[in-house]
Amino acid sequence: MGDRVVTPYEGSGHHSWDDAAAIESPLLLHRTSVRSAWVDYNGHMSESCYLLVFGDSADAFFRFIGIDEDYRAAGHSLYTVETHLHHRREVAEGEPLALSLQVLDHDHKRVHIFHEMRHGESGVLLATAEQMLVHVDIQAGRSTDLPRLLAERLDAIQNAHAALPRPDVVGRPMGIERH
After folding, report:
1. Count of CA atoms in the C-beta half-sphere (13 A) of 77
2. pLDDT digit string (tens) for 39-90?
3. E strands, 44-89, in order
4. Is the Cβ–Cβ distance between 65 and 107 less than 8 Å?
5. CB of 96 within 8 A of CB of 119?
6. CB atoms within 10 A of CB 26
7. Could you tell me the pTM of the whole model?
8. Please, which residues have CB within 8 angstroms of residue 26's CB and are 6 or more apart in sequence?
9. I need a surface site. Which of 2, 28, 138, 145 has the fewest CB within 10 A?
10. What single DSSP character describes residue 33?
11. 101 neighbors 118 (Cβ within 8 angstroms)
């Protein structure tokens, strides 16, 4: 695999879709702890590593709905086109992290998701990430419609998540408010 970024789920087992199973609301697909390599000169997890952990959570979600090595080898994937991170609390080496994921919306090509990163023991909110994903044809280098099976799974998840409150940071632009 060389020097490329590798998610914890590559080449290993992962939580897969089960038509008969209840859908968690929100999805709880990824847990980890803060690695020493993620800690910066301030003694806490570096800002770029928050995105790395959210990316691992997204990868767990992709695999859950059916986007795995075989799916990508067949020429399709989900790509992130926009991410908004909100850092709430610091976290130090060795501390446990628990990630949740909410499907906010989707259409024939796009998926809008929201992650929360919490301390794995105390439950304190550490960070959030809002992401817009687009389904792509890798060979053509352009967006393409989701296959029916994935769209049906996303419908089921979105329906299960419909009762969840919409996080107040979703869709908020960044800027300095002046009075």
Report:
1. 15
2. 999 999 999 999 999 999 999 999 999 999 999 999 999 999 999 999 999 9
3. 76-87
4. no
5. yes
6. 19
7. 0.94
8. 100, 101, 102, 116, 161, 164
9. 2
10. E
11. no
92 DSSP assignment: -
In which residue are the tokens 């709430």 written?
88
DSSP conformation class of 38: G
Q: Rounded to 10 degrees, what is the CA torsion of 151, 51, 79, 109?
A: 40
Give residue 131's identity as a one-letter amino acid code. Answer: Q
Instruction: Output the furthest CA–CA distance in the chain (Å, rounded).
Output: 54
| 19 alpha-carbon distance from chain centroid | 21
Tokens representing 47 are 């800002």
CA angle 117, 169, 36 (to 5 degrees): 25
Taking each continuous run of H as one helix and of E as one strand, the counts in the chain are 3, 6
Query: What number of other Cβ atoms are within 10 A of residue 112's Cβ?
Result: 18
Structure tokens at 118: 């919490």
What are 36-47's pLDDT values in tens digits?
Answer: 999 999 999 999
Q: Could you tell me where the beta strands, DSSP code E, fall in 18-174?
A: 27-33, 76-87, 96-106, 110-119, 125-137, 142-143
Length of the chain: 179
DSSP state of 52: H
174 token code pair:
């960044």
